[in-house]
Amino acid sequence: MSRFVLSGTPWPLPLALSLLVSSTSSERWRGAVGEAARLLAPGWDDDSYISDLGTLALVLHLRAQDDRLPQKVPVQEILATLAPVDAAGEPEFVQESWELLRQTGEAPPIAGQVEEGAGQVWLVQRDLGDRYLGGDMDELHGPGPSAFQSATARLRALLADLDEERREALYVVPVPSGSVQVQAAGGVKVITTGSVMAMRCTHKGCPAEGGTVIVDGMRARYVCPDGHTSSPRTLAPAHARWALRHVGHDPASSGRLLVDGLFHVPQVSESPRMELSANVWLRQQQRGSKADPEVLRRLDAAADEFDRW
Question: For the whole model, what pTM was predicted?
């Protein structure tokens, strides 16, 4: 699983939804995400941020208590929830939401066991609330603003002129059904601008060819051909979904997808939108394949050497 999925990169709305909702999401959370998408869809464009969608969904999830549907939370109540901030400029509703997640069992039962115990909503809130994103993780400097700060400011502006009559006229936005499983016959390779590394099973003796990447909301996992499952730190959900474009599939797809050859996924440290041509090996491979097979052989050997490292 990777952190910082929801910050910094604008996404198409269907892809944003596929990252916010998992196959195990509660109806309450699915409803909150769907209503948030319905309110933001009319103005969603290439410059829209998934942090806005996630923040609004968290507010609707928080206020949709006692059997009240997210669609019934008034716009003015949403704006009132977004407004108060603490001394650091962080929205106050976040602490209230943390308490709700502990009460509903969304928080991990034991601190540090995030992979095993955390729910989708907790993962979304943790990602958006991190105040050391892009900063010094050793805490030599104080924390900076979280993604919540800029998201709440944008949401207050976006929703300021929305009344309930106009809200009722907005179209329903379909919410994805769940995970995508990408089965690659040639194997899975993680790329940076200067390396190509095969995704390997942690168990000895498993074949390198083949393998499946499963993206389920904010989690990404690798399943080797022998069925062993792992959560490599180099594999991120947004990166894996965006990489589907390179094999002819919609990044917001769900269900099982088959890839005849290799499935290249940018490493978590790279931009999720990294093109294959940005990798020096794949770029030279594309050029060399037209003229010199020997170049391909040497590049493949070099890539294998990277794998052994």
Answer: 0.85
